[in-house]
Protein: DUF4267 domain-containing protein
Amino acid sequence: MFEHFEPRHIPALFTATVMTFGGLWTFFDPHGSMLEFGLPERVARTREAAAVMHINNARTTTIGMCMYALYFTRQLPACDTILAILGAYAGLVDSWVVWREGNPRKAAFRLVSSGLLSAAGFARLTSGGSRR
Structure:
């Protein structure tokens, strides 16, 4: 299953893991997952926010599963494309929302970490630079 693994695949596998299993966290502890995301207590304790978080995280888990599927079928350039776009766009939006909700430290962490993952994707780290 991991016979084609190389250390340069770690960012893609890390992202797939965090998205697949992190997305499931909301179903067990919506309050805690929203706080960890960076949302304030006033948002995390509302039923309405939990409903939206469940819907969002179903999609997050789906993207993580797709990353695994692409990785295990050796479609590594596709993994890089997802890393690049997801890290750039979703990372920017997540950071902006968390910043506006009053958690600049978590926003900065989200921006830097997603930026690094995006850079790995744009550099085609997973695929080793191949353009297949």
